[in-house]
Request: fold
Amino acid sequence: MSFHLRVCTPDKTFFDAPAESVVCPGLGGHFGVLSNHLPLIAGLTRGIVRIEEAGQSTFLVVDGGLAEVHGRSMDILANTVLVAPNAAIAEEKLNEILKEKNSLSPIQ
Amino acid sequence: MPSLKEYNVKLTRLRSTRKLTRTMKLVSANKLRRTQEAEKRLDAFTSRFHSMLHAIPLAQMTEPHPLLVPRRNPKHVLLLVITSDRGLCGGFNNALLRETAAWINLRESRGFNIKISCCGRKAHAFLRNRYAMDRYYDQIVSRPEFTGVRQISHELISGFLSGRLDEIHVAANRTGSRGETTPVIEPFLPVPAAEFQPASSEAPVRECLIEPGPDALLSAMLPTLMALRLYQVLLSSATGEHGARMRAMEQAGSNADSLIRALSLQRNRARQAQITTELNEIVAGAEALR
Reply:
């Protein structure tokens, strides 16, 4: 069972394809989404979105954003997205963002 | 009367100018198209972002977010002025800068402490010696993109939250649907009440989970909303700039065309005159030899 996932920033669409499962860095901790999830709106923090489809994983490093699950599709509107081929590189890129833009996060 | 050679030199120069204006017009047209596409993408993104936030049932914000609260006695005001980096675009920058200067003078005479931040070289060049300059954001106007805009917006927000600034306004050209530009100076922070309405009570509220709760989510998304708004202003200004440059180049090109036409006429006359004189001299010489 898969659902449709779209990940975009104001400048570009990074992912527009079916996905079986998605793990997102929510503001209140990571959460996973499978098909037929309840309608959900969640704020994302800086972290790695992991997308699974047909045994393949895609890693996207996001710099905060908003996710919505409704019906059989999911939208992620992110501030910045970096594509990483595997978990290790994603981790590295995330650390880079964390270091580089340390001043960018703490607005509350 | 200038000689034939001088005419030729002038004509060559004019023709190369004509080529230049034509190229610049084409380049501007291309940039205009790109900016308009970016604007369209941003529009789609923003409206989806808003529709998600509107799905949140009206959060009874027990304590309004600090970005929404006007200061009681505002004193320190920051004005972010957005112009183009380059000239040759008609009155695009001048109209805005004139309006900006008038706005600043009025506020200063009322006792506000005004600081200026700039996007765009033209604003910087015009304002830096007249008013207190806060920041100059280089390289953002020519190719605006969201990451850079977010940084600027973030700096503005932290300036406001730290209490260093009481009000932030943005001065920029807004572009209408037919490409006409109007200078607009509008408040950016604190967020104008009309700007931020989480959800009207009549709007159909969809049943859904909200992580991590309406209040916290709205607060966390406010900086992004502000960045989106600034991005939209920057793109609108860029669209206006490229449109204005296209029109200016079109005008300059047709001026060059009419100059070329007038000058070639004169050049041909001069050439004819020269031939006539030469013929006369030859005939006179032949006469004398006889």
The first helix of chain B runs from residue 4 to 54. The domain at 60-243 of chain B is CATH 3.40.1380.10 (Pyruvate Kinase; Chain: A, domain 1). Chain B has a mean pLDDT of 88.
